[in-house]
Design brief:
This protein has helices at about 5-10, 15-30, 65-75, 130-140, 155-160, 190-205, 225-235, 255-260, 285-290, 300-315, 330, 350-355, 360-390, and strands at about 65, 75-80, 85-90, 95-100, 105, 110-115, 120, 125-130, 165-170, 180, 185, 210, 240-250, 265-270, 320-325, 340-345. The protein is of the alpha/beta class. It folds into two domains: about 15-145, 2-Layer Sandwich (Copper Amine Oxidase, Chain A, domain 1), CATH 3.30.457; about 155-390, Aminopeptidase. α6 packs across α13. It is globular, with a radius of gyration of 21 Å.
Length: about 400
Amino acid sequence: MVPPLPEKVLRPGPAAMLERRVGFCALILVALGLASPGAFAVSTLQSERVVGAATSAATVGIDYVRSEEFGAKFGLKAQRSPDGKKLTLQSPWTTIILERGSREIAHNTLRVFLGEAVREQRGHFLLSRIDAEKTLVPLLVPGHGLGAGKGATAPQRETVPKLKTIVIDPGHGGADPGKVNARLGVNEKTMTLDTAKRLQSLLEVRGYRVLLTRTADVALDKDKNTDLRARAHFANSAQADLFISLHYNAVGGSEATLQRVRGAEVYTLTPQYQHSSSDHERQDSKAAAIALPGNAHDHWSMVIAHEVHRALVHNVGFVDRGLKRARFAVLREVDCPALLVEAGFLSHDEEARKIATPEYRQQIAEALATGIVLYDAALEAARRRRPRLAH
């Protein structure tokens, strides 16, 4: 029997509490009449286009906002690094570090990947408007600013989702073993199913209704594409409030590469008009132009992904490989907030040996449960805050 998650594991730590104070401070300012609700809206920021010498194929048609002005709306002061290559947006509880020309930022020491690289123009660091709305706002004040960006729907503007039914998707199964470490006799499909069952037990004792897309070593369909879509459709049929797909990773290459690459990655669906984290050459413009069903939940998917990402890195001690974006098949058609977790590399022998132990998989499951419970707390906080911050 899987033991219940200790209460102390689920209690937000000092970092989590401090991080949410930005939303509390915004609420206080509105309540005191020192700022209007619209003052915190990214939509009020003036758009810029990259022009002149800084123009490239990667910047054409993209709306940007000045990072300093964005930060100021959330109480973050801007400070450049001595070499001018980085800009820090900081408050007593939040630190965001931007680097010129990079899609990677640091948010309270955690790695987060943007859809567009940070640009510099006329002495200002520029963030794409979509990144500001779809990535940074959910991290700063969950539930704030919904409906401000492209593709937003009326339900996004009006509601904060509930969290009662959770669907856990153990990756692979049946004839598809997923990633395999042949030397150690460890395969992904077995590890994901065990981890999913552990997570299910931890969540059920908290009162959630939890369903698994598979409960045995089977595939949902012999055809791989149909199998992946069936997992999303399973969640939709169950009217899931959250979908989490569990995986273990692997990398190819030389032995040195296999034993170097390790850690956890967390993915959410790439927003419309943006390129996935792995699409460095921006080749998939056709897919980027399409609004997928899962994009209706971009905001809350980022919130849950952040909470899970933080719990995996801080509670388990994973090497942080980042919070990333991808158009994975299991995420595209899910009609609820959704994420995909890669909880370590089976190709890395030391990490694979840990994953092969029940104790370590229990630790991973507890971190996932912690992230989900903190996400639920963020939903409740947003419900309380929303009437005053709505715009």
